[in-house]
Amino acid sequence: EVHLVESGGGLVQPGGSLRLSCAASEFTFGTYVMSWVRQAPGKGPEWVSAISSGGGITYYADSVKGRFTVARDNAKNTAYLQMNSLKPEDTAIYYCNTVLDTGGDYWGQGTQVTVFT
Question: Tens digit of pLDDT for each residue in 100-110?
Answer without folding.
Answer: 999 999 999 99
